[in-house]
């Protein structure tokens, strides 16, 4: 191969400006070796190359420079061409997928048009004739009776020991599954927010007006069909709610396929309902067009087939024909169709919990989309597109996430066969305590170096009103000091050390501590984060010296995207030591918030933000679960579970500490729910205003300073009122009013805010002082404030133009105007700056 380069040299060198330089194969090979090591060598490196390689001695340094420029250009073009080919393949496959979806929708439209015409004809016929059809009815009834007495001979073959009967069931399940995956057997409706495209998750739809709940997804994955099937058949690896999958029988079928009898146990998502299980037949086969199919359906007396294992602690759910259709894609990869269709026996759970078992949206997020995301994640990890820090392999990090979720689910469910047993209560039923005396369930005896007797779990559930799950979990993650007790965290971390200290008393305020979040990994679509949290220790007295040591938590956070419909939000964490080995023992605790379907009611009863869910389950007459005057009632279920180790002589102390700690957390979340729930436009009772003498004095200074500087009364009247009245007026003011420190050597922080200001910043009075002015205002807002600051100091106030700021949750907030004024003390000295954001709203 000969490579040519045009070289234009200066006239004094005597070279022809149009001369081509020809490189020999040896020269090209030498240059390629250097390019592999350094694609962009410096001038000194190029001159050194000429000196070290005699075969390059007749080439000028400028020619070498041009060769490297051309080589980099060719490499860039090659990569771009490969990228465009990949995008083209994705677009072609997506186009094929959309065309098939269009054909399916056209068939559905034709079917609906036919049904509409048929119904019109029946209505017209019924209104125009009064023929007596009693004889026909008798004939039909007689025929149905004869059919019941002589059932289909095919069902007689469906015997537990008859492979032909099982194959008949499998073929029927296959046909019904394919009609759902690519046909019109189910009335599918596209799920909100799931738009197709080359980089999207795919096409996601949920069922409408069908028996049970169903979800369907179609997408592209860059793995071969056999590999996709292998991944998806390992259900516990991607379905976090799956406890176990046992294959009790395997029967070969035609076309190299198999029939499996599967017993699956699922976790219950809350403490308020029993877990579900499935007894199913799974059929794996190849179609004539090369597609790979894995379909599954429940076995029962109606379908025929063998009887499944007994389920004393589970409620037997039904899986309608579901599965995966995996079709090879031109140029590599696969087109994946997923269908999940189940009946979770919603009538067996309390009425307040039924929306959780009747929602196709929740099924889509927890099962259907989760399966597609998992395959896409594996595909991108295989191709090297996903980069992870900390030197950990992706499979190891995925295992950590699975172990955290599984440990939390085990704690929430407390299965007897895992060694859990209930512990006596203190008379109240709000907190459930369970103990496990089987340390082997938690990774072996080495897990508990000094607390060797067992594990205690304190758990509770509560109903939240009008609190977005994503917002609540983000708040719990970013403001741990609002609810956690550092002393209890230190006790939990002590189980990893050989010399723990005494069991602390759970304190309502906890210990102030700083947390540093160190990211480890995140899924491709950023719906789940794995991170290490460092809690910086502080000692405030000699007896607290054990708390002065930094602690580490491995934390899994998911579902913090508010735009996801039907998504579950979760924050799970476990103490780890500094070594953080791949097989590190984990004892997870945390929170799970699951949305319930919004429910409209005709009355306009007021809404309490949080409810004792136990009272709702017992049929309490409280009206907290009813709708607000706007007719919308957004509800979610929060489940809390915390695990602690203990030994024989500390068991009662740990139980008392755990019970009180979880009660404190419940109280903190009730206060947080009041603070972070959307409030503008609602009639929900606000938080009571602070009544300390300092707050009364500050409000009086704010009001007087505003009147002195602007000549206008802040509350619309110039009458002299009492301090309590002023405080109430400022606290309930419709605009956000915040006070900010006037520090010259540090970033200003907020020191006070009214109710609307707390709503805008999505925080509480306690956490307000952690929020700085610089992090709240955007760049134009900071510049506007700096330009107006001399005017504020001289004139006493200034108006800032409309702009955008950010809440403590990172949400953008727009406002029409901001007024800033100096707050003066009694002696006319500067106390702070006050901000009033007018007509604000979340973007």
How would you concisely characterize the structure shown here?
By secondary structure, the protein is of the alpha+beta class.
- Secondary-structure-derived class: alpha+beta
- The first-to-last residue Cα distance is 60 Å
Poorly predicted runs are 1-18, 130-157, 443-451, 507-512, 599-632, 680-686
Helicity level = 25-40%
How is the main sheet built? 11 strands, mixed
SS elements, strand count: 31
Q: What is the overall shape?
A: globular
Protein name: Homeobox domain-containing protein
Domain Homeobox: 14-78
Pfam families: Homeodomain, MEKHLA, START
Subcellular location: Nucleus
Give an overview in words.
- This protein has 843 residues and is of the alpha+beta class.
- It is 35% helix and 24% strand.
- It is built from 19 helices and 31 strands.
- The strands form 5 sheets. Strands 3, 4, 5, 6, 7, 8, 9, 10, 11, 12 and 13 form an 11-stranded mixed sheet that branches. Strands 14, 15, 16, 17, 18, 19, 20, 21, 22 and 23 form a 10-stranded antiparallel sheet that branches.
- A hairpin with a 5-residue loop joins strand 29 (817-824) and strand 30.
- The longest helix has 68 residues, at 61-128.
- The radius of gyration is 34 Å and the shape is globular.
- Belongs to the HD-ZIP homeobox family. Class III subfamily.
- It comes from Brassica cretica (Mustard).
- Residues 159-387 form the START domain.
- This is Homeobox domain-containing protein.
- It is found in: Nucleus.
């Amino acid at each position: 191969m000969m490579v040519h380069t045009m070289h234009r040299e200066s006239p004094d060198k005597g070279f022809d400006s149009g001369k081509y330089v020809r490189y020999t194969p040896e020269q090209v090979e030498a240059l390629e070796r250097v390019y592999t090591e350094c694609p962009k060598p410096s001038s000194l490196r190029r001159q050194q190359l000429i000196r070290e390689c005699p075969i390059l001695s007749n080439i000028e340094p400028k020619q070498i420079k041009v060769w490297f420029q051309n080589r980099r250009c060719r490499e860039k073009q090659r990569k771009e061409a490969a990228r465009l080919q990949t995008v083209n393949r994705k677009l072609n496959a997506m186009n094929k997928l959309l065309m098939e979806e269009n054909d399916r929708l056209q068939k559905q439209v034709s079917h609906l048009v036919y049904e509409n015409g048929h119904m019109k004809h029946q209505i017209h016929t019924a209104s125009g004739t009064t023929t007596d059809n009693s004889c026909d009815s008798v004939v039909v009834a007689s025929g149905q009776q004869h059919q019941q007495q002589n059932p289909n001979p095919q069902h007689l073959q469906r015997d537990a020991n008859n492979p032909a009967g099982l194959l008949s069931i499998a073929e029927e399940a296959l046909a019904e599954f394919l009609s759902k995956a690519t046909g019109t057997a189910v009335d599918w409706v596209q799920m909100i927010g799931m738009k197709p495209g080359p980089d999207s998750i795919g096409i996601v739809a949920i069922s409408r007006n069908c028996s049970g709940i169903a979800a369907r997804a179609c997408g592209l994955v860059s793995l071969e069909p056999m590999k996709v099937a292998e991944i998806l058949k390992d259900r516990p690896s991607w379905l976090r709610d799956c406890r176990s999958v046992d294959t009790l029988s395997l029967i070969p079928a035609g076309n190299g396929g198999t029939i499996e009898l599967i017993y699956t146990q699922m976790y219950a998502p809350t403490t308020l309902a029993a877990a579900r299980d499935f007894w199913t037949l799974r059929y794996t086969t190849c179609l004539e067009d090369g597609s790979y199919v894995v379909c599954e359906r429940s076995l029962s007396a109606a379908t025929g087939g063998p009887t499944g294992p007994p389920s004393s602690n589970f409620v037997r759910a039904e899986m309608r024909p579901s599965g995966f259709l995996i079709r090879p894609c031109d140029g590599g990869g696969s087109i994946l169709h997923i269908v999940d269709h189940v009946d979770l026996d919603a009538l067996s759970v309390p009425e307040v919990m039924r929306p959780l078992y009747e929602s196709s949206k929740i099924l889509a997020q927890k099962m259907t989309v989760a399966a597609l995301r998992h395959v896409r994640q594996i595909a991108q990890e295989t191709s090297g597109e996903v980069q992870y820090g900390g030197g950990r392999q992706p499979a190891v990090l995925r295992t950590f996430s699975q172990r955290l979720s599984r440990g939390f689910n085990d704690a929430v469910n407390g299965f007897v066969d895992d060694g859990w047993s209930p512990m006596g209560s203190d008379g109240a039923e709000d907190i459930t305590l369970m103990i496990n005396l089987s340390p082997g369930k938690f990774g072996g005896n080495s897990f508990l170096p000094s607390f060797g007797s067992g594990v205690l779990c304190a758990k509770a559930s509560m109903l939240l009103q009008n609190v977005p799950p994503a917002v609540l979990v983000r708040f719990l993650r970013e403001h741990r000091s609002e609810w956690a007790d550092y002393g209890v965290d230190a006790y939990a971390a002590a189980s990893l050390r050989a010399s723990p200290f005494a069991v602390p008393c759970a304190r309502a305020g906890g210990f102030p501590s700083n947390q540093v979040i160190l990211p480890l990994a995140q899924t491709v679509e950023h719906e789940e984060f794995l991170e290490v949290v460092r809690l910086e220790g502080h000692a405030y007295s000699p007896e607290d010296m054990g708390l002065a040591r930094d602690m580490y938590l491995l934390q899994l956070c998911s579902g913090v995207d508010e735009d996801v419909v039907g998504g579950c939000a979760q924050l799970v964490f476990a103490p780890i030591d500094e070594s953080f080995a791949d097989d590190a023992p984990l004892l997870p605790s945390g929170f799970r918030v699951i949305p319930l379907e919004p429910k409209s009611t005709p009355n306009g009863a007021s809404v309490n933000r949080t409810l004792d869910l136990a009272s709702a389950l017992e049929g309490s007459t409280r009206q907290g679960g009813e709708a607000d005057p706007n007719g919308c009632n957004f509800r979610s279920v929060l489940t809390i579970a915390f695990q602690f180790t203990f030994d024989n002589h500390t068991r009662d102390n740990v139980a008392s500490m755990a019970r009180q700690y979880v009660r404190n957390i419940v109280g903190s979340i009730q206060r947080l729910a009041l603070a972070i729930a959307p409030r503008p436009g609602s009639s929900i009772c606000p938080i009571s205003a602070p009544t300390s003498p300092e707050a009364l004095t500050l409000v009086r200074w704010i009001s007087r300073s505003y009147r002195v500087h602007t000549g206008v009364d802040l509350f619309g009247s110039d009458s002299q009122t009492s301090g309590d009245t002023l405080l109430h007026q400022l606290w309930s003011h419709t605009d956000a009013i915040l006070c900010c420190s006037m520090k010259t050597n540090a970033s200003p922080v907020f020191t006070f805010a009214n109710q609307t200001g707390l709503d805008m910043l999505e925080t509480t009075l306690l956490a307000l002082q952690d929020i700085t002015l610089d992090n709240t205002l955007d760049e134009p807002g900071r510049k506007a404030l700096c330009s107006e600051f001399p005017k504020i100091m001289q004139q006493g106030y200034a108006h800032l133009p409309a702009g955008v700021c950010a809440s403590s949750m990172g949400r953008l907030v727009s406002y029409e105007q901001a007024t800033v004024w100096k707050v003066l003390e009694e002696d006319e000295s500067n106390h702070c700056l006050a901000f009033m954001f007018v007509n604000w709203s979340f973007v």
